[in-house]
Amino acid sequence: MVIPSEISDKIGEFFGERGLLSKTLVGYEFRPGQIDMAGEVLDALVEGRYLMVEAGTGTGKTLAYLLPALLSGRRVVISTGTKNLQDQIIESDVPIIERAYKYERKIKAVTLKGRNNYLCQRRYFQFIRQGTLGFKDDAGAFKLIEAWARKTKTGDRAEIEGLPDDFAPWHEISSSSDRCVGQRCFHFDDCFVNRMRREAQSADIVVVNHHLFLADLEIKSAGGMGVIPNYEAAILDEAHNLEKVSTSHFGITVSPFRVEELVRDLLSEMEAEGIFNKDVNKDVQDAARKVGESSDAFFGALMKKKGFSAKEENVKRRILKGFFTEGEIEKAEVLRSRLQILADRMRGLMGDTDSATSIVRRAEEISDAINFIVTMPDDGYVFVCERRGRGVFLSAFPLDVSGEMKRHLFDRVDTLIFTSATLTVSGKFDFFKSSIGLDGEAGEKVIPGGFDTKSQTLLYVPRDLPPPNSGDFAEEVSKAVEEIVQASSGRALVLFTSIKNMREVHEELSPRIPFETLLQGEAPRHILLKRFQREVSSVLFATASFWEGVDVPGEALSAVIIDKLPFDSPADPLIEAKMEYLERGGMNPFMEFQLPRAVISLRQGIGRLIRSDGDRGVLSILDSRLYKRSYGRIFFESLTEFPVTDRIGDVKDFFR
After folding, report:
1. Integer distance in angstroms from the first to the last C-alpha of the chain?
2. Is the pLDDT at 460 greater than 70, yes or no?
3. What mean pLDDT is predicted for residues 512-520?
4. How many Å apart are CA 391 and CA 299, to the nearest integer?
5. How far is CA 320 from CA 25, 255, 325, 501, in A?
6. CA distance 45 to 23
7. Residue 310: what pLDDT?
8. Helices vs strands, H then E, count in the chain
9. What ranges do the domains of the chain cover?
10. Distance between CA atoms of 272 and 414, rounded to whole angstroms?
11. CA torsion 198→92→604→607, rounded to 10°?
12. Residue 621, helix vs strand vs coil
């Protein structure tokens, strides 16, 4: 399909050296990669095909797909991996386009979140009538919510300043498809979820996260209405996380908390229907009580199993056939039968009302999940038992998501753009394609980053450090980190692949270096990052959650130090099972799975350093296997933009 010149010309008019963007942004620098990417994306959107674009840091990729999405004339949804990027698109990038074009009308851009982000007014007012219930120990937080609820127009919990991200009682008053009574709800017309859906229907740009994107596809595949308005094309940013997100999404998890919530919601719905004190509901209450007792018996038995009653708060283990004893299987069957009795009695009491139908469906889903995990009928799944605090979680995750992705995504959407700063390994997209089951034709484009990494960075990889499995590795890493942060005057992010190593090195260095040290876990992530930016010479010690989504431009970050190559632990249940699964299929699990995942993780970690044109800094990888193992070549092939040294003297010279 030929793109009309009046549309394609707008790419140059906007991104060109003297284009609209240059007149809008202070300190603008022309980026050839940005205009190149925008042209590729526009072509794919108009022609209706798949495209993969790796756009290095500094390309300006969000604008490079936002403008084509608006110009294409097609209804486009944008899916991201992080909230930070969602906020950037809505609050920064869309306004840039508006200012550049001096639009007479605003571009209507809407972030559509999972419904648990929104207040359910029916549930909230039930809580007001009943007292604070789950908020009894959180009176301060409840006052915040009360004050916010009186004035909010969106119902989005993100508006509540000071409410912790992990505030558990929120789920009691948040919207949930399980608890929604639809048009029977008194608040249906002013429901915050429905309001956001209506806003999205008329939006020019709809932004969602990957979880919601997949959930919507699954609902529509089953014949449901879905959450996201119908669209013709999708742009998936931060697509390197897509396999991980889809594995989690298409998995199954059951826990005592899920059972408790079911029982609690059932009793709450009965009260709301005005039948709480009627004699007829005694059977339902008895059935609910017995479900609770059976749940305690089954999950309580798992808590007492060897390896799960240890002092460690969190324990995660892969489980195989034979894990469940005959007694535990019997307890599971009792729980399942009582869930069925509860569903039958609920149906008899409340008929086919929305409330009853929802409760019955949830009871059956829990029963089916328990049966699937206890019987383990499918070797295409990994089964996991995890203890978190006072609860046991049983899960099943698919080892290959390609079938689900084909059925829900590739068979339904004919225009897809996948983009990220890290999609390739050694310049090839093969691993990304295989990880999500993309076996059809797709365009490929690698856009170099927008920064001059040859002059802005140095990659330091010492040769003389011991291998990571040696007893003195942490001690030698401590010495190497000390030398680097002394040279950089602090201003360093030290990334570890394990909490144990992070704590050991921090404990060793904290009293020795003349800079403030910050340790992951001492405060919430966003607080640590603010302190790190404010205390310019500080050193932040962190692990996995800081490998992505950290954006600290300027002098506060001049060194990123990585203790060792970020291979997934083979002891992780999902990784262990996936490697066995690939081996059964005749593949080399190390070369075709572990290695490419580590390369992409390393590139993500390295990407924390240079976030603006004025940044300079040193990247250090303290793993001599890069020189001593044959696979080191694969890592270096993915880091060709960086000048490399093995001499600490070069690091010191760089900072002089």
Report:
1. 55
2. yes
3. 95
4. 8
5. 58, 18, 12, 30
6. 27
7. 59
8. 27, 18
9. 5-101+402-447, 252-398, 453-655
10. 45
11. 180
12. strand
Most distant CA pair in the chain, distance: 84
The enclosing H or E element of 539 equals strand 539-542
What average pLDDT does the segment 469-488 reach? 95
In DSSP terms, 315 is beta-bridged to: 387
Angle at 628 between CA 626 and CA 634, to 5 degrees: 40
CB atoms within 10 A of CB 12: 13
Provide the edge-to-edge strand list for the sheet that holds 314-318: 252-254, 391-398, 381-388, 314-318
Please say whether the beta carbons of 198 and 108 come within 8 A. no
What letter represents residue 603's amino acid? Answer: R
| CA proximity to 623, closest of 554, 577, 573, 567 | 567
Which residue, chain included where needed, has tokens 């809008």? 24
Note the pTM of the prediction, 2 decimals: 0.91
Q: Is 60 exceeded by the pLDDT of residue 104?
A: yes
Adjacency order of strands within the sheet including 617-621: 517-519, 539-542, 492-495, 559-562, 617-621, 457-460, 644-645
Q: Which CATH architecture describes the domain 252-398? A: Orthogonal Bundle (1.10)
Copy the structure tokens of residue 266.
Answer: 């059932």
Give the residue-averaged pLDDT of 476-497.
Answer: 95
Range 393-396, long-range pairs (CB < 8 A, 24+ positions): 393/253, 393/254, 393/255, 394/253, 394/254, 394/255, 394/302, 394/369, 394/370, 395/251, 395/252, 395/253, 395/254, 396/251, 396/252, 396/369, 396/372
d(CA 268, CA 173): 12
Listed in order, strand segments (DSSP E) in 210-261 are: 233-236, 252-254
Q: Which residue has the higher pLDDT, 386 or 310?
A: 386
DSSP 80: E
Looking at 3.40.50.300, 3.90.110.10, 3.40.50.970, 3.90.870.10, the CATH number of the domain 453-655 comes to 3.40.50.300
Would the CA dihedral through 543, 546, 548, 553 be positive or negative?
Answer: negative
For tokens 């250090």, name the residue.
Answer: 620
Q: Which value, in Å, is the radius of gyration of the alpha carbons in the chain?
A: 27
Q: Which residue has the tokens 């009627």?
A: 278
Q: Which two tokens stand for residue 385?
A: 């038992």
Q: What is the pLDDT of residue 270?
A: 73
Alpha helices for 60-184 (secondary structure H):
61-71, 83-88, 94-101, 121-130, 139-149, 170-173
**Structure tokens of 170?**
């929120």
Question: Do residues 74 and 28 touch, judged by C-beta distance below 8 A?
Answer: no
- The CATH class of 5-101+402-447 is alpha beta
328-334: long-range contacts, CB 8 A cutoff, minimum separation 24: 328/298, 328/301, 328/302, 328/374, 329/374, 331/294, 331/297, 331/298, 331/301, 332/298, 332/370, 332/371, 332/374, 334/294, 334/297, 334/298
Q: How far is the C-alpha of 366 from the C-alpha of 182, rounded, in Å?
A: 22
Domains 5-101+402-447 and 453-655 share a fold: yes
Q: What mean pLDDT do residues 43-68 have?
A: 95
What are the pLDDT digits (tens) for 581-602? 999 999 999 999 999 999 999 9
Q: List CB contacts of 341: < 8 A, sequence separation 6 or more.
A: 287, 290
